[in-house]
Design a protein that fits this description.
Blueprint (H helix, E strand, L loop, with lengths): L4 H13 L3 H8 L15 H8 L2 E3 L5 E3 L9 H16 L2 E5 L5 H16 L2 H5 L10 E4 L14 E7 L15 H25 L6 H4 L5 E9 L11 E4 L5 E6 L5 E5 L2 E4 L7 E5 L1 H6 L9 E3 L7 E10 L6 E2 L17 E2 H9 L8 H5 L2
Parallel strand pairs: 1-10, 2-3
Antiparallel strand pairs: 3-11, 4-5, 5-6, 6-13, 7-12, 8-11, 8-13, 9-10, 9-12, 14-15
Helix pairs in contact: 4-7, 5-7
């Protein structure tokens, strides 16, 4: 049902003023939420557009990293080829045997769930829409710009302008888990950027030298059970404004990737990490790797958690990025202009999540 702009703004502000997020909305409902508020209901044209996309039983590639440390071996060569194929065709893949201990992964997901499911009064101190605040709890960063709010809450840890994380600034309930997880992830990301470099036909340390791992944003999403998931989404369709995104998801599932005009589910695999090629890697690879549309659907009976690390390169001091010269040829001329992460971020926060991606912003 369409609602007038003034009424919608009032409803959005009333929801935002609770500082309790979607979880607070569910908890406050007597006998549970039966109908979802109008601000979460997707516009009819968006739903109709979705009906044109079929749902498939496809599964994104799963890559076993066992033996990846044996440089020069046929095993590593095969892994690089698998990553190349997945990055060019899918823009997504899952990795297993990445050597991050299962307990580290489990503790991170428990930490995210623990934060979101604690008493709302303990979360309200973190609730903010201030882009300069490093650690904040929020619901829908684009709440006032979106056509329909998404059914999720988020803990944000913004490290775009700093490579230093002060553990004391983190919520105590997930502090140790976050620090431990990030330490392990940073070691894995070094290996991942080596493999992506080789998949592009570059020297193994090429992407590492661009410092793509320096700036990052960490987000712990919480998707409460939704009574009518056909009317709303956990997160609307979008591409990621990052070089890569590393996602840890729980066993519930809900992530879908658009592949050949079909929604393919990224089925949870115990101990796996999801690797997502972002807009910025598509840009510097001059379209060799693909950043693809994805979304998260709701669940009627179970809440879902995930933890994503967006790797965004160097924002401060200003550093210029652009298509890698070695990948520009007569057959593949330069498609994008140079950019800074500051410009990319300003563009990102000035638009809705599901509006046109960063690719269009820097396309020549």
């Amino acid at each position: 049902m369409e609602i007038l702009a003034d009424d919608r703004t009032k409803q959005l502000r009333a929801f935002d003023d609770t500082k309790a997020g979607v979880k607070g909305l569910v908890d406050a409902a007597v006998g549970g939420v039966v109908d979802i508020p109008n601000i979460f209901i997707r516009p009819p044209d968006e739903v109709a557009e979705d009906l044109e996309v079929s749902k498939a039983s496809l599964q994104v590639p799963v890559i076993d990293l066992h033996g990846v440390g044996d440089k020069g071996s046929s095993r590593r060569h095969n892994i690089v080829n698998e990553i190349k194929h997945a990055s060019e065709r899918w823009g997504f893949f899952q990795v297993v045997n990445h050597e991050i201990p299962p307990k580290v992964l489990d503790d991170m997901l428990k930490g995210v769930r623990g934060f979101h499911e604690q008493d709302v009064e303990l979360k309200r101190d973190y609730y903010s829409r201030d882009p300069k605040r490093m650690v904040k709890f929020t619901s829908n960063y684009d709440l006032y710009m979106s056509r329909a709010a998404n059914w999720r809450d988020t803990l944000v840890i913004d490290m775009v302008n700093t490579n230093h994380l002060d553990p004391q600034g983190l919520p105590s309930i997930c502090r140790d888990a976050t620090v431990d997880y990030l330490n392990h992830v940073m070691k894995f990301v070094d290996t991942l950027f080596e493999l992506l470099s080789e998949a592009l036909g570059l020297e193994p340390n090429y992407l590492k030298c661009l410092e793509l791992e320096k700036g990052k944003t960490l987000v712990g999403h919480y998707y409460p059970a939704c009574p009518k998931p056909d009317l709303t989404l956990g997160i609307g369709k979008h591409t990621d404004t990052s070089f890569i995104t590393l996602l840890l998801q729980d066993e519930i599932g809900g992530l879908q990737v658009l592949h050949q005009n079909q929604w393919a589910s990224v089925g949870p695999i115990p101990g796996a990490l999801v690797v997502n090629i972002g807009d910025l890697l598509q840009i510097i690879s001059n379209d060799q790797f693909k950043s693809v549309i994805h979304r998260a659907i709701g669940n009627t009976t179970q809440s879902r958690t995930s933890f994503a690390c967006f790797f965004l390169g160097v924002a401060t001091p200003l550093k210029t990025y652009g298509p890698i010269e070695k990948l520009i040829t007569k057959e593949t001329p330069q498609i994008y202009r140079e950019f800074t992460i500051k410009d990319i971020n300003m563009n990102f926060y000035s638009r809705r999540l599901n509006d046109k991606s960063s690719l269009n912003y820097v396309r020549i």
